[in-house]
Amino acid sequence: MLCQLTIDGQPFSFPLEGEFRWGRDEVLFDKHREILSGVDWQERGYSIFALLDEKEQEQLRDSIRGLLVRILAESNIVIPENFRLEDYHRYVGSQALHGEVISKTRFLTYADLGIDFGEMADRIARYIGHRLSLENPLLEKEIVILRISRPQSLDINPPHRDGSLDLWEDVLNVWIPVAGSNAQSSLPVIPGSHQWNEKDVLRTEAKGAAINGLRYHVPGIIQSRYGLHLIRPNPAYGDALLFTPFLVHGAAVNQNPNTTRMALELRFYGG
Ligand SMILES: [Fe+2]
User: Fold this and answer.
1) Rg of the chain's alpha carbons, rounded to an integer?
2) Helix extents (H) in the chain
3) CB 248 within 8 A of CB 160
4) Do the beta carbons of residue 149 and residue 77 sit within 8 Å?
């Protein structure tokens, strides 16, 4: 089926494979309001937070570059010495090669990056007034994702809510732009959509949605009774986009002509 949506008012559609059903009469967010109970953006569901100073952002970028250079070497992908993250698509053109890379960047751990994520969690915890930890008791191993979106590609996931999966119900999503992120490529969200009733959401089951043959763990949302009208809050470098896992987000199509976008996706546990 075709998933039709708008991003900042601009129509966009792509084929989304799966079996779709309207959900049950329940608001998933209702049982998990605690994490956002002290913030003034509870209704909107997301906020931009100044997380890193310039030096820290640079360290993060360097660390990700180092990691990616290692991963590309493992796949025998040749890159120049002065490789820039934004040029990734020039060296990883084929779907097969890209698939090989993201099979690794989708399952990183905190230790892979040599960054003080504990300090990040502390800063965000102070900002929202709720404890956060790196350890999710429902997971054997933490999952840190480096999202790579090549320009003019379908390197996207469908609109979804991480909170549709039990293991992500009590987290805060943290999305950090790393490279090539701007008003044409950053993560779209639907303000207030965490309060939507499931009966108003047409979606697949878990592991039931695929784009371009790539299957996603979270249920993919193809439509809602309110439409799918996303906006890009577009956090600057050094900022993090914080949002409840029940907020509908995704479909981060990269509309830049010639720049790969990379972002770090974290989920801090607040249960
Ligand atoms: Fe997500």
Assistant:
1) 18
2) 54-74, 88-91, 95-105, 117-128
3) yes
4) no
Contact 46, 230 (CB under 8 A): no
Q: Give dist(CA 247, CA 160) in Å, integer.
A: 8
Expressed in angstroms and rounded, the spacing between residue 214 Cα and the centre of ligand 1 is: 15
Is the pTM value of this prediction over 0.90?
yes
Q: What is the DSSP letter of 214?
A: E
> For 212-266, how does the pLDDT look when each residue is reduced to its tens digit (9 = 90+)?
888 988 999 999 999 999 999 999 999 999 999 999 999 999 999 999 999 999 9
CA triple 212-237-214, angle to 5 deg: 10
**Ligand 1 centre distance from Cα of residue 156 (Å):** 11
Distance 250 CA to ligand 1 centre (A): 6
The SS3 of residue 33 is coil
CA–CA gap between residue 204 and residue 206 (Å, rounded) = 7
CA of 78 to the centre of ligand 1 (A): 31
CA distance 162 to 173: 8
